[in-house]
Amino acid sequence: MGDEQGSAPTKPRRISQRGIATRERILEAANRLMFVRGVNATTLDDVREASQTSKSQLYHHFADKQELVRALVRYRGALVLQRERGGLERLRSFSGLVRWRNALVQANSLNNGKYGCGLGSMAVELSDQDEQARSMLSETFAAWEKLISDGLHRMRDSGALRQEAEPEKLATGLMAALQGGYLLANTAHDVGPMEVALDMALEHIKSFLTEPSGESTR
Amino acid sequence: MGDEQGSAPTKPRRISQRGIATRERILEAANRLMFVRGVNATTLDDVREASQTSKSQLYHHFADKQELVRALVRYRGALVLQRERGGLERLRSFSGLVRWRNALVQANSLNNGKYGCGLGSMAVELSDQDEQARSMLSETFAAWEKLISDGLHRMRDSGALRQEAEPEKLATGLMAALQGGYLLANTAHDVGPMEVALDMALEHIKSFLTEPSGESTR
DNA sequence: TATATACGGGACTAAATAGTCCAAAATGAG
DNA sequence: CTCATTTTGGACTATTTAGTCCCGTATATA
């Protein structure tokens, strides 16, 4: 040991379609299971069974459980950001924000508020346990918030939001309301708190609108 | 088995001072360890060692790990509610709310945002795993929110808040901002997001004040 | 087609962790 | 003081779970 270069000369390591597919199957299974049971409460045997693979495949594609979890953090992060890009990339008006809110609430209400946010729950479980995972999650949250703040910037530039509005802070507040909403909804098994929390954050943003519009957020 | 009365005739079961003290020591240790490492990542041997007890004592005072965790949920719930009663029972003005916010932020900043809320992190870790724990946590959150909404009710009754303010919703929003703030702060290892989130919620409450006061929340 | 290497099945080992047990010491009621 | 009961130490077992290994099969490149 110790004769491996720090900056590995990246051994060729061929890769086949089948291999890629297996790796994907493992990640998908881990994603599903760890979403409903949590990371630490999910065993590798659970993952093996759900992904229709074997022990050797798990360890062929991932060094150990920690690496699988880290891969999952990346995997979920990519999924969430992709989904959120769809809903936020074109954001230019307050009503767009309301539509975004409604989509999140709707999705969460399908589970009666259960399970929470795939990113948020990993953040709670891993932040005090795996520094690398924590740092990836932190970056993912930052990227997510940036999608929001970019939209708010566009709204400010177009004159929809007043100049003194601070997009970054508004985005952070909205993200906190979202995460706290997920947490309370999960604990209560009821989406209600999530709706209330998001509406509060939207009201706050609304207070920076140049021409205050109608009442309801729906 | 099965010959035990449903409504147990509660065998006398004497209890000694020493026994109570040991039980307390175990709970204290579990509380400390599980706060920094999380519930699932803390083993009974960790608890035994930290509490200077033995295996038999753990199982003398708690049926199994799950029962210990449930006892901890009660324990922490009581601690938090007691602490919060101190800060909220006399709440009658917006500046009281600001002081409350500052105390929470200050406490959390001592850990640079780490560890999050003792209740919130348990809620995330246990809600999808132990129905009884989830339900206790849900009730504890409700009681906590009630401390806030009671204060807001007093403010509304005294005319500080406008009639159309809805204390329950405002309290839920504030709690979500707090929990989301804890989560983001823990992930970022920085209290910043928690401050921003709480300030958003306070601004929102401020917008219901009858006589808008000064600017800063500090 | 040859052959090196990725990929896979699944039994096996190792480690961590929960949970049991019993004999002894402390304690409190009568 | 006596005696039943609680409390305790700590070795022991059981179970769960991570991680290893061997050997066979599929796949890609030459």
UniProtKB/TrEMBL annotation, chains A, B:
Residues of the HTH tetR-type domain: 20-80
Protein name: TetR/AcrR family transcriptional regulator
GO molecular function annotations of the record: DNA binding
Lineage: Bacteria, Bacillati, Actinomycetota, Actinomycetes, Micromonosporales
Superkingdom per UniProt: Bacteria
Keywords, comma-separated and alphabetical: DNA-binding, Transcription, Transcription regulation
Residues of the DNA-binding region: 43-62
Keyword DNA-binding: yes
InterPro entries to which the protein is assigned, alphabetical: Homeodomain-like_sf, HTH_TetR, Tet_transcr_reg_TetR-rel_C_sf, YxaF_TetR_C
